[in-house]
Amino acid sequence: MYRFFTEKENIGENQVRITGQDAHHIRDVLRMKPGEEISVCTGDGWEYTCIVTELSPSEVTARITDAAKGARETASRLTLYQCLPKGDKMETVIQKAVELGAAEIVPVLSSRCVSRPEGKKAENKLRRWNQIAEAAAKQAKRLVIPPVTPVISFSEAVRKAGAQGICLLPYEKAEDIAETRRILESLTPGQPVSVIIGPEGGFSEEEVREAEAAGFQPISLGRRILRTETAGMAVLAMLVLFLDT
């Protein structure tokens, strides 16, 4: 069953309205007809099973046949702070982070980042990143579309994360994987967890000290050095194992 998203105000007592790109996709790409079944989410955890009733040039209307509070989201809010990688690697990071359950992706500009988009280029990238997050959420049958925020500085990132809950910093000089296992086993479902991933050149020692001062716990991801686009996926997969209920 195809899944689409709409604003909460578009949900009526027994019908739903779908507008924008999703309406175009239903009508012009999938060429769906009245009578076909779809799933609609509003981003607040509710999932509606619907039957398409009408397709117009501007919107699709569907009759609600069932509504249920979904259980696809991880019990803990997982936020990925990703220092900007080179090229288009950020697109892969966003796609996979959404698939793995991240609730928010925050691009970060650290001292060793090579990619430094500005102005119109930054606006276009952010628009593209959020489109990727939406597509990944639909593919993974998420009940929400995790937002990708505008780029912030490293200092802003550690301050923001430090006020939100458990903070983890994968770092090649951290203690062995046994300590990482101990930290993960101490987490409980429902605790917000933030993870910050360095760029290709890693974190500077000054940044590590700043993150630790803000409450980040350095962790190891094992004996091998992972690429920046792999490290976030590895941590999120570990967290899902311990926090998904």
Give a verbal description of the structure.
By secondary structure, the chain is α/β, with parallel strands linked by helices. It contains seven helices and eleven strands. The protein folds into two domains: 3-69, Ribosomal Protein L25, Chain P (Beta Barrel); 78-243, 3-Layer(aba) Sandwich (Alpha/beta knot), CATH 3.40.1280.10. It has a six-stranded parallel β-sheet, sandwiched between helices. It has a five-stranded mixed β-sheet with strand order 1-3-4-5-2. Helix content is 35%, strand content 25%. The protein has helices at 20-29, 89-99, 119-139, 154-162, 177-185, 205-213, 228-243; strands at 3-5, 15-19, 37-41, 46-55, 59-69, 78-83, 104-109, 152-153, 166-170, 193-197, 216-219. The chain starts with a strand and ends with a helix. Strand 3 and strand 4 (46-55) form a beta hairpin.
How do you describe this structure in short?
This protein is an alpha/beta fold and 245 residues long. Helices cover 35% and strands 25% of the residues.
CATH architecture of the largest domain: 3-Layer(aba) Sandwich
Low-confidence stretches: none
Structural class, judged by helices and strands? alpha/beta
Count of helical regions: 7
Please provide the count of β strands. Answer: 11
CATH fold-level topology of the largest domain: Alpha/beta knot
Shape: elongated
Q: Any idea what the radius of gyration is? A: 20 Å
Distance from N terminus to C terminus (CA atoms, Å) equals 24 Å
What is the residue-averaged pLDDT? 91
What order do the helices and strands follow? EEHEEEEHEHEHEHEHEH
**What is the makeup of the main sheet?**
6 strands, parallel
Strand order of the largest sheet: 8-7-6-10-9-11
Provide the CATH top-level class of the largest domain. Answer: Alpha Beta
Number of domains: 2
Q: Tell me roughly what share of residues is in helical segments.
A: 25-40%
